[in-house]
Amino acid sequence: MTSTSTSTREITDVPFARENGMLTVGGVPLDLLAERVGATPFFAYDRDLLTQRVRAVRGALPAGIELSYAVKANPMPALLHHMSTLVDGLDVASCGELRKALDTTVPARRISFAGPGKTTPELRQAVAAGVTLELESQGELRRIRAVSRDLGVPARVAVRVNPDFAVRGSGMRLGGGPQQFGVDAEQVPALLAEIGSAGDVEFLGFHIFAGSQNLEVESICAAQRATVDLVAALADAAPGPVRYLNLGGGFGIPYADRDKPLDLGAIGENLADLMQDTITRRLPEARVVIELGRYLVGEAGVYVTRVVDRKQSRGRTYLVVDGGLHHQLAATGNLGRAIRRNYPIAVASSAGPETETVNVVGRLCTPLDVLADKADLPPAEIGDLIVLFQAGAYGLTASPTAFLGHPDPPEVLV
Fold first, then answer.
1. CA neighbor of 101 nearest in space, from 111, 116, 93, 109
2. What Rg, from alpha-carbon coordinates, does the chain have?
3. What confidence tens digit (pLDDT) does each residue in 31-54 have?
4. Are 176 and 163 in contact (CB under 8 A)?
5. Structural domains in the chain?
6. Beta strands per DSSP E along 244-353
7. Which residues are the active-site residues?
8. pTM for the structure as a whole
9. Which of 77, 79, 78, 104 shows the shortest CA–CA distance to 90?
10. Residue 306 exposure: Cα atoms within 13 Å on the Cβ side
11. DSSP assignment, residue 350?
């Protein structure tokens, strides 16, 4: 990890209002919410912001494209149940997530299960549940076939394709070149032939997801065009009509002042052209899906932690808080980022003009536990609440909660 020396000011364009100077979540002042929760640190997710984001995405998508929520972004049960009432389907990456998804009102046929290294017991659970298994390898197909024969239930399968193109601008590349994800595009026709020779699986279609956390509209649009062209070509070798086409997602959210929010309208127009020009003509039976996680929930959450100490060290001011990287690893820059950038951060009780430059650090015994480096914030004292924004995705469940044995933070949906 490489630290930056850029100072970060308190962000002012987050979707959370202040009431009498105090930040609110779901209309509840954070100091009162902290009392209601009973302890800090904690995560809080705004129900109305989740609903508004899904509504905005649906408004941009053309007719005929469904919206799926990637549970891995945030599997908190109350949030997941709320999201399940708003979207058309769910995507899971483990049987733990699968069990949570099956507890919602989303029917099993609208749940997809992706990820390399699915174990045979997991495959048995998925086949028995009737969800769509997204194939990652030839070996996985053969194990699925054995499970289907044993259970007497034809598995519903789609092929996850590792495309022969990469996506420029993605924070994490999941396609192009050698990958542990999916089946290389050039190997897919042979796999489709094997699927066609079996009577124990039901072929549905394809899933291509080449990159995540992308803020470049043209890059996303180009990837969607390349994905549709690739699937249209692969469909000629399919053992049946393509009835499921997961175009992935990868829509990014801004984490720093220099990041610009995505233009959903431009993405929607590109998808409308693809539907009209190619998909409805070449793949008329396909149920087309955009799968999003971070984009739907990331900006609707905050991580709230309390200052427990304030200290000076050789000219630098440190605010020591009761949270840290064991709950919010991504905010410390230790979750797949080469260059650390501060997440948007604020003092819950103050938005005044006076500021000071501080380091906000957790209480773990590691110098990696830095939530904000050289941040310009209003003066904060012991007992004040510090708020990290963009905390609705890849927060608690993407963090090393067992490290040093501190208790897990509560999560609340407000």
1. 111
2. 23
3. 999 999 999 999 999 999 999 999
4. yes
5. 8-46+299-413 (2.40.37.10), 75-292 (3.20.20.10)
6. 244-246, 287-292, 301-313, 316-321, 345-347
7. 365
8. 0.92
9. 104
10. 15
11. B
